[in-house]
Amino acid sequence: MKNKFKDQLLILLAIIGVGALFVSAIPNSTNQVGTYQIEISDSQNALFRVNTVTGDIDRIKKSNISKVDVNN
Q1: Quick one: which of 32, 56, 64, 72 could link to 51 by a disulfide (CB 3.0–4.6 Å)?
Q2: Are 47 and 38 spatial neighbours (Cβ–Cβ below 8 Å)?
Q3: pLDDT 10s digits, 15-24
């Protein structure tokens, strides 16, 4: 009787584990937040924007960035 219970418990846990693997493999289709990282380089006088999803890197010259007036 003990062996039958142990076997059923083992099968149940295996099914739960396989189900968890399938659920984790489904891509998440919700809106992503924080897909960009910014790195500032003083030596190149630019900043770099990295898209963490696609791996694309954009170089932006600091002189092309408009100044923000916080007093207005």
Answers
A1: 56
A2: yes
A3: 999 999 988 8
